[in-house]
């Protein structure tokens, strides 16, 4: 687990600034939702925190240690994407073990981690199947399992439910919340869905146009929105 500090975090693509110097503190073990309309910079923020995107300006720290130049593996993050990004030609078991084998982890440790993820996500019946023989919800559980086996310091989710139908969204939402309760790992969860954010997060960061409009607990944002944008975003039906 890690706390995360952002100081003046800025991103520009070819001279065009899209993230304008964001300051943010995320506590160890906290579940934080990053919300805002499409194009406001949520994915860019998450990718900078992950180490998948360079930081143009500013400082990113995990546990007060600057990580700007560290790779995702060195930062100890796991990321779950909207599109499951599973290896189609590999079984579920192999999808879970692949990354760990690349890290040259001893076999018994790999097996133990797979067993734990399998138990937590009830993946047992699917271990020998290929991704194409799974439903969307099952695939996303495998993707979450692949994030778990790395035992990251921080989990990063980028709209992980948006490819699922309404019923599966609710179910998978519950699974991710349960994971957070069981593991207690710091989680940053990107969504454009305010209902997801309100029901899952301990802290919500409302973004708009590459800036943070407000940070607060769900109830605080609901009862005391800082401005009309936050009020409209939190209050509007999806
Ligand atoms: P969100 O995830 O909130 O929908 P993004 O982080 O994907 O928003 O995008 C934020 C802004 O950055 C958008 O204006 C988008 O067009 C721009 N952007 C994102 N990725 C790139 C890129 N690789 N090159 C240029 N502009 C980009
Ligand atoms: Mg996005």
UniProtKB/TrEMBL annotation:
Residues 4-234 form the ABC transporter domain. One of its GO terms (molecular function) is ATP binding. Keywords: ATP-binding, Nucleotide-binding, Transport. It comes from the Bacteria. Belongs to the ABC transporter superfamily. This is Sn-glycerol-3-phosphate ABC transporter ATP-binding protein UgpC. It comes from Thioclava kandeliae. The lineage of its organism: Bacteria, Pseudomonadati, Pseudomonadota, Alphaproteobacteria, Rhodobacterales.
């Amino acid at each position: 687990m890690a706390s995360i500090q952002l100081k003046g975090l800025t991103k520009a693509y070819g001279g065009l600034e899209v993230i304008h110097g964001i300051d943010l503190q995320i506590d160890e073990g906290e579940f934080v939702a990053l919300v805002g309309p499409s194009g406001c910079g949520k994915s860019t923020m998450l990718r900078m925190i992950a180490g998948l995107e360079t930081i143009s300006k500013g400082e990113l720290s995990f546990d007060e240690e600057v990580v700007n130049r560290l790779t995702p593996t060195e930062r100890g993050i796991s990321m779950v994407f909207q599109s499951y990004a599973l290896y189609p030609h590999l079984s579920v078991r192999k999808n879970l073990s692949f990354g760990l084998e690349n890290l040259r982890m001893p076999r018994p440790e790999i097996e133990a981690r797979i067993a734990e993820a399998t138990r937590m996500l009830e993946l047992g019946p699917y271990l020998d199947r290929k991704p194409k023989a799974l439903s969307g919800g099952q695939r996303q559980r495998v993707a979450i399992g692949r994030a778990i086996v790395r035992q990251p310091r921080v989990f990063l989710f980028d709209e992980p439910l948006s490819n699922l139908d309404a019923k599966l969204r609710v179910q998978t939402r519950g699974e991710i919340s349960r994971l957070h309760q069981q593991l207690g790992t710091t989680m940053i969860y990107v969504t454009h869905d305010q209902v997801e954010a309100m029901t899952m997060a301990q802290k919500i960061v409302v973004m708009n146009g590459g800036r943070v409009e407000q940070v607060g607990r769900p109830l605080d944002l609901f009862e005391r929105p800082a401005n009309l944008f936050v009020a409209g975003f939190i209050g509007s039906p999806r």
